[in-house]
Amino acid sequence: MLTLIQSVLVEFCDAHHFTVDFLKLSLGCMVEAPAGCVYIDQLTDKHQCDFIGFDTNDLTELMFGISKRVSRLAKDQVPYHQQLFANDPFQKLDVPSVGKMLECSINGVKKQNRDTEVTVYGDHCSDKNSLRFLSHIGVDSVCCDPYLVPIATSVVTLTD
């Protein structure tokens, strides 16, 4: 994969008269679908991936086939959510499903290369229990929407 990306970059840079220092080039992968978690070992094979990002909002939507953003559908699904989950799966990470999938994926990534930076993106990054779990399974950093940063910052301060 790295060779393909480098060759495309060289071709692009030559065509536009740019130069690229491949020694400073970092390559990563954003995982937004459960299939990406399943195939993570192929995505990170041979230490060619410097960082991995997991989007917990999208993983939750695709894991359960439920929509967070389409309000009409989300309202129709609320009673179903309450029967399945103790908490809103978009506010608190559902550890038995999405959490376990992340844990298996991160273990696979770190087994291949302990130096691979793992980041999680999503609303879950402002929840105290979700942050504790993510820290426990080897997440190096988290990222969330700007309006959640003050909440996430206070949660991290309290959990340190």
Explain the overall architecture.
With about 160 residues, this protein is an alpha/beta fold. It has a single domain (about 25-160), classed as Phosphoenolpyruvate-binding domains (TIM Barrel), CATH 3.20.20.60. It is built from 8 helices and 4 strands; from the N terminus they run H-E-H-H-E-H-H-H-E-H-E-H. The chain has a 4-stranded parallel β-sheet with strand order 1-2-3-4. The longest helix is centred in the middle third of the chain and has 18 residues, at about 95-110. It starts with a helix and ends with a helix.
Question: What's the story with the biggest beta sheet?
Answer: 4 strands, parallel
Query: How far is it from the N-terminal to the C-terminal residue, by CA?
Result: 38 Å
What's the number of helices? Answer: 8
User: Which percent range describes the beta-strand content?
Assistant: 5-15%
Domain count, please report it. 1
